[in-house]
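Before the break, one more example. Copy the sequence into your notebook; we will annotate it together after we see the structure.
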Amino acid sequence: MEQAPEVGDEAVRFRETIPGGPEDPGDHNDQFTVVRAGNTIVTFHKLNVGGAARFPADLVSRQVERLHNAQRP
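Here is what the structure looks like once it is written out:
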């Protein structure tokens, strides 16, 4: 688990690391961010091989704001 972004109504963030094998050097590093905005749940996923994956916080914030705006009558 990682610190959740302060966006939407609820959010969680976690990381999954899968060690690379002899024929696939470098760890597979996945970061997942899951956000609930009203009655919609969105998932952001970033994969990096051989380094730390980090989804841009400003992009998550902008997309969640668009979700909120789309749900307003």
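The longest strand covers residues 28-37. The chain is about 20% helix and 40% strand. Try to locate both features in your own notes.
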